[in-house]
Amino acid sequence: MTEIRICHLYPKEMNIYGDRGNIAVLQKRLERRGYSSSVTPIGAGEDFNPSIFDLCYLGGGQDRDQIIVAHDLQKKSAALRSGAEDGMVFLWVCGGIQLAGEGYTDSDGRRIPGVGILDLDTSAGNRRLIGDLVLNAELDGETSTLVGYENHAGRTFLGPDATPLGSVLKGYGNNGADQTEGAVQERVIGTYMHGPILPKNPWLADKLLTWAIEHNTGGIPALSPLDDSLENLAQQVAISRAGVKR
Questions:
Q1: Domain for residue 246, yes or no?
Q2: Catalytic residue from among 7, 94, 152, 215
């Protein structure tokens, strides 16, 4: 049985939005298709070996914890970049998208370094961007609606090597100005969308799993369809609550 190896970075420090739910969704959708999985938590001061993982997850955290994590990530930055270059799958959420980029400049002008696996940069805005978030996403030439919630002060702008995860239908997205949300570069995805993101967005969960299985086996899997009626209903409720017409 193929085992998909998941790394959960800083689960204690970066888990303020129930982001462990994203890990649970990935594991359950693998299990329902006959795959096994393992989850390895890696915290501050612990080594990260990119050769033993297929997918790396990092959630959102409080500002003070994010600063601690940012400094520890610098010790892992070369290994993280190596993993990204080798096709490892990344999902980094909220504070994670900021840390995946070149860096974050806070409201006091202090520079917090990123690891450079996404071509983007972030600076603090004058007010937080909060509320329901709905976007039209595109990955591998396929499109889907994604729903979630955003709560961030950062204003993120992409460089030429990154493409948006999607275009905003409702909410603010990366910066509240250009209607973009998230970033994609190779198999690295960053997003401000939490809630957590994956329970209401099975299309995105399966895209991540397809990539992770391909990274593990070298072949593109044909994932068997699952009954996502409850997930789709939850998504539709979120879309209706946000006032988006479909």
A1: no
A2: 94
Cβ contact 7:92 at 8 Å: no
The pLDDT value given to residue 17: 77
pLDDT, residue 16, reads 82
* 56 catalytic per annotation: no
CATH of the domain at 171: 3.40.50.880
- Per-residue confidence (pLDDT) for residue 61, from 0 to 100: 85
First to last CA, the chain: 41
pTM of the model: 0.97
pLDDT tens-digit map of 224-244: 999 999 999 999 999 999 999
- The verdict on residue 16 lying in a domain is yes
Residue 163 lies in a domain: yes
Q: Is 94 a catalytic residue?
A: yes
Domain count, the chain: 1
Q: Which pLDDT belongs to residue 65?
A: 84
CA separation for the pair 147, 180 (Å, rounded): 14
Parts of the chain with a pLDDT under 50: none
Measured distance CA(192)–CA(9) in Å, rounded: 17
Catalytic residue among 7, 8, 152, 194: 194
146: left (phi over 0), alpha (psi -120 to 50) or beta: beta
As given in the structure block, the two tokens for residue 62 are 């409080």
Query: Is 161 inside a domain boundary?
Result: yes
